[in-house]
Design brief:
The structure holds two protein chains of two kinds. By secondary structure, chain A is an all-beta fold. Chain A is built from no helices and eleven strands. The N and C termini of chain A lie far apart (36 Å). Chain A binds chain B through residues 4, 31, 33, 35, 37, 41-45, 48, 50, 56, 58-59, 88, 90, 92, 96-106, and chain B through 32, 34, 36, 41-46, 49, 87, 91, 93-103.
């Protein structure tokens, strides 16, 4: 199993550009989520999904869109990037009745 | 979900036991104590969890007080690779929102 795979690992965007952060898991987990981590801070939940076709907002959803068309993939879209979205983004997945989550290695995003 | 309180930072000598405390005085009867750690900006890694009994696995031991208002994560023989931020989370089983606080920055010194 590859676990949770995030791409890209690094990205630099200009203000106003859009992009999609990819997340894929091969563990057949129903639950997937996105977190952001700012320097020296803990992780904050952006969006999560409990299954294909179902998504919900976390603590800091503004400026981000998600969709879940398959069990394996959970992309995070930034429609118009802002410097405040400079952060490290982590994707996580788990079984829905469990709280042991598996995290990807992160995407380091810089918006200039 | 119950709030947790952890020290901001701790130091431990290599080879000694590292004991990381967590206070969760408002924990509910159906809430578990979970521990994760994050090594140098990698993705967080699950360590261990428990409800009311003490638990042990290949990574660590978890000691939960009888009143369940606090717990201690024990790394029995800390190595330099255990230097990380350790997060204590109190949550119901299967909860959909994992909320990470500031955690404890543990530094293992040679």
């Amino acid at each position: 199993n590859a676990g949770v795979t995030q791409t890209p690992k690094f990205q630099v965007l200009k203000t106003g550009q859009s992009m999609t952060l990819q997340c894929a898991q091969d563990m057949n987990h129903e639950y997937m989520s996105w977190y952001r981590q700012d320097p020296g801070m803990g992780l904050r939940l952006i969006h999560y999904s409990v299954g294909a076709g179902i998504t919900d907002q976390g603590e800091v959803p503004n400026g981000y869109n998600v969709s879940r068309s398959t069990t394996e993939d959970f992309p995070l879209r930034l429609l118009s990037a802002a410097p405040s979205q400079t952060s490290v983004y982590f994707c996580a997945s788990k079984f829905i009745d469990n709280t042991e989550a598996f995290f990807g290695q992160g995407t380091r995003l810089t918006v200039v | 979900d119950a709030k947790t309180t952890q020290p901001t930072s701790m130091d431990c000598a290599e080879g000694r036991a590292a004991n990381l405390p967590c206070n969760h005085s408002t924990i509910s009867g159906n809430e578990y104590v979970y521990w994760y750690r994050q090594i140098h900006s990698q993705g967080p890694q699950y360590i261990i969890h428990g409800l009311k009994n003490n638990e042990t696995n290949e990574m660590a031991s978890l000691i939960i007080t009888e009143d369940r208002k606090s717990s201690t994560l024990i790394l029995p023989h800390a190595t330099l690779r255990d230097t990380a931020v350790y997060y204590c989370i109190v949550i119901i089983q299967g909860a959909q929102k994992l909320v990470f606080g500031q955690g404890t920055r543990l530094t293992i010194n040679p």
